[in-house]
Every structure is written in structure tokens, then in C-alpha cells.
Design brief:
Length: 276
């Protein structure tokens, strides 16, 4: 890839630091990675919420039932690619969880937000990282919104999963689990500003939607997302570490990664670094 920009999708920056060797297999060597039914459920929940929010942003309206139909259609589309070994979730349970979450999102969460962009394709943004390395950021951002109290634009990202909602250690109240999402929303902030010339001035918000039996939805904020990606005067950002890997061509393994398994890693059979 010498001389060409190295493409990084917003959603792929965190996985680069989970196991770079796995990342290289998926994003450079194009080895196919599997997904389970819970990931398919997340994709389908996004589709249901997207149908609802896009209608609202266009000044139209669809019913909650129609949003649930969009969810069901996408769940059925996803089914063909699901690897049933990955998680123990039936299609019937997926449908029930998704319909509850999409309905709650449309009825109680979406009306609280004034979105200005929904599932927006952004312009590729080339960043010269020095040492002959250019990183091309790309991605389709979930949502941008006007902040409800102070005004200003901020990114909102929907996250689903078993641990998407956790208990606050002090208050014991549910809150969105923001851990590990800063890199993605930080790139969304850069891409939104580059694409629209509108400045991001409000903190990012994560809408966590638990696909566990609690079916909770909770919101959390990230105020330093862009800084995580670009760094500060005294601290390198994640892009600088990524550029070092691209410049050296070395993508180190991490056999302690949660994803180091035959279920999640397409390099599992050939990886020289895992114990046999
Ligand atoms: S097998 Fe483990 S260490 Fe090797 S690439 Fe996959 S996740 Fe990384």
C-alpha cells in the first residue's frame, strides 16, 4: 500500500488496538470475519431506529409499528450470514428483544433528541501523519444532534449489546457503557466537521441499548472523544500510534484479546502467535 492512504473506518480504530494482527487480517488481507446473532440483532435494531429517525428528520412520520417492521426485515436479511456457534441466542428471542428496544427507543428516547443528521455518509478525510503515512478516515455516522440545553452540535451513537448498559458505581443507577467508544465517536466528530464545515461543540452521547433480559436503554456522555483520536500537545493520539504501525508494517498480536478465538478471529488457524 506504499504511497496510498491507509483507510480506517471509524468503527475499526478500536479493533486495531484490540489485536492489530487480527485487524490486519480483516482490513488489509480482507479475510472474512464471522458474526453472531447478537451482532445481527444490533444491526437490525439500528435499521429500525434509523427508519424512525430518518422519517422524522425529513418532516415525515412513521409509526412505531413501521419502525419495528423495518427491524424485523433487517433481522431476517442478516440471518443468512449468522454463525450460530458464536452466541446462544434464538431467532425468537432476538425478535422479542429487538421489538421491545426499538419500541422503547421510538416512544421514549428519540423524541428527546433534535437530530440534524441520521446515518450520514461522510466525505473521506485524509490526514498526513508524517513519515510518508497518510490515513484516510471514512465512516457513516449514526447521528448528529443539537444539544438540548446549551445548543451546539454533538455526535450521538447508538450502541447495542449485552454490556451496553451498566450500573453506575456510585448511584447504582443504569448508565450507558461508554468504554471503548471514544475512538469511534472521535472519528465521527472529525468526519462531521470535515463534511459539513459545522463545528462540534457539544459532548458526544452514547445511547446504550441492552440486549440482555433487562432491555434497558440509558445514555452516557464522552467529552474528550476527538482528543482520544488526535492527541494533545503532550500526548499522542490513537491515529499517531496507528500511523506508527502502518509505517513499520508491523501489526502486533494480542493473544489475551477477548476476540482471540476461532469464533471471532479469521486468522485463528494460521496465527503463529497463539498457543497450540
Ligand atoms: S489468533 Fe489471537 S493473536 Fe492471533 S491474530 Fe487472532 S486474535 Fe490476534
Amino acid at each position: 500500500m506504499s504511497g496510498q492512504p491507509f483507510p480506517i473506518r471509524a468503527s475499526s480504530l478500536s479493533p486495531l488496538f484490540e489485536c492489530a494482527h487480527r485487524w490486519e487480517a480483516i482490513y488489509i488481507d480482507r479475510m472474512r470475519s464471522s458474526f453472531g446473532r447478537r451482532a445481527a440483532l444490533g444491526t437490525a435494531i439500528h435499521a429500525g431506529a434509523e427508519a424512525f429517525d430518518i422519517a422524522r428528520i425529513n418532516g415525515e412520520s412513521i409509526s412505531v409499528d413501521e419502525a419495528c417492521i423495518a427491524f424485523m426485515d433487517e433481522l431476517s436479511n442478516q440471518e443468512e450470514g449468522v454463525d450460530p456457534r458464536i452466541d446462544n441466542l434464538s431467532i425468537k428471542d432476538s425478535q422479542a428483544i429487538g421489538i421491545k428496544l426499538v419500541s422503547d427507543y421510538c416512544n421514549h428516547i428519540a423524541p428527546k433528541f433534535q437530530y440534524v443528521a441520521v446515518e450520514m455518509e461522510t466525505k473521506p478525510y485524509d490526514i498526513n501523519c508524517g513519515h510518508g503515512v497518510t490515513i484516510r478516515l471514512t465512516g457513516k455516522l449514526d447521528r448528529a444532534r443539537i444539544h438540548s440545553y446549551q445548543g451546539g452540535t454533538g455526535i450521538t451513537d447508538l450502541k447495542t449489546g449485552k454490556k451496553a448498559v451498566i450500573k453506575d458505581e456510585e448511584t447504582r443507577l443504569p448508565k450507558a457503557n461508554i468504554a471503548g467508544h471514544g475512538a469511534q465517536v472521535g472519528i465521527y466528530e472529525l468526519l462531521y466537521e470535515f463534511t459539513t464545515s459545522d463545528k462540534i461543540t457539544a459532548p458526544a452521547e452514547i445511547i446504550g441499548m441492552s440486549t440482555e433480559s433487562s432491555h434497558q436503554i440509558a445514555i452516557g456522555t464522552i467529552s474528550n472523544a476527538k482528543q482520544i483520536v488526535t492527541g494533545t500537545d503532550i500526548q499522542p493520539g490513537l491515529l499517531e500510534f496507528a500511523a506508527d504501525m502502518f509505517a513499520s508494517g508491523k501489526f502486533p498480536p494480542n493473544t489475551k484479546s477477548m476476540l482471540c478465538s476461532s469464533k471471532y478471529c479469521p486468522r485463528w488457524n494460521t496465527c503463529a502467535y497463539r498457543e497450540r
